[in-house]
Amino acid sequence: MTTATASTVPPRGHAVFPVLDGIRGLAAVLVAMRHSAPMFGGLSFVKSYLAVDLFFILSGVVVANAYEAKILNGMSLSKFMWIRLARLCPMLAVGTLIGLGISLFMQHDAPAAALFHYIMTVALIPNPDGLGLIFPLNGPAWSLFFEIAMNVIYFVAIRYLVGVRLFGAVLASGALIILAVVIYPSHNLDKGSTVLLMPIGMLRCFFSFYCGVLLLRHHRSRQAPSASSAPRQTAIAWGLLLLSAIVLIGPVAISSGRYWDILVDVYIFPFIVMWALSARPDPISVKLFKLCGVVSYPMYVLHEPIARLIESIQRNELGTIDYISAPTSGIVFLVGLIALAFFMSKHFEPKIRALLMSLEGDSPLS
Predict the structure, then answer these.
(1) 3-state DSSP call for residue 194?
(2) Burial class of residue 10 in the structure, from the number of CB atoms within 10 Å of its CB (0-12 exposed, 13-18 middle, 19+ buried)
(3) What's the N-to-C CA distance of the chain in angstroms?
(4) Maximum CA extent, the chain
(5) Residue-wise pLDDT tens digits, 232-280
(6) Reported confidence tier of residue 12, pLDDT bands at 50, 70, 90
(7) DSSP 112-142
């Protein structure tokens, strides 16, 4: 691994990593299925919460790939954060609006409190009451909060966390991940979405994000590997997706122990991403993976409020959640969610992001 300081990294064009897009889309699907389990007949993907750690690693790769040279060449923190918020907040606002509707019209919460939580969620400011979910109207937003926090840390520390120091920071935070799993009574990493467990959420994000940065820098420092056949590259790519699915579904025989999360988080995920950075599948696979990447983020911020809305309607109409129509209802939900995510990613999010970017010079962060 190169020991050159980050300030010596030359400007680069954005590298394209299609397999990472495929993995991101797969992880988003499994998270959506986890949070809509009743529609799939109670089918539980017991380890799909680890998808968040995978998202954090991918975020480290993507952010370093897209912005590291720009930051080192003088991009301001305000511009960097405005770009990141313009990417994350529009779709988050839409998903959380559904959560606001549930809060007001189905749970009959106080309008002032519900509106307060909506504003706080869209602004990615944690719930201040010290109890419950960090973002009660849209639970998955907790990971976005930590991602934004990590983006700030990355910007500030980019010239310091290089070479041996970066490697040491990843090792140290990995050791703390292991310690947290071993000593905490539940012996897993399904933590971070509640106010009381925010420190573990930050630890998960720090380790995984900087693991992604480390993997990207290592990938860039390597000599170009010898070209292998397209069929072999395609087989590797799909094999990595299959491995990701197996890991996130969680083989019951081995994933129930306390060491499964450690193995996945500190070894298997980095291994998958390291190989995915170099994989170059055939053009058809690239198009499919790109589509997965396009719908992944909208799916992530829309799925939980939509699933709660469907379940709330069922409770009001039937008095319970209908298992009879499962898993047909789950399949319909998933197909509809993917279609909605694709529509929003093509016709809503780019326009809103472009509008926000046009206001960047007058933004509060400038």
Answers:
(1) strand
(2) exposed
(3) 36
(4) 63
(5) 999 999 999 999 999 998 776 666 677 889 999 999 999 999 999 999 9
(6) low
(7) HHHHHHHHHHHTT---TTSSSBSSTTSTTHH
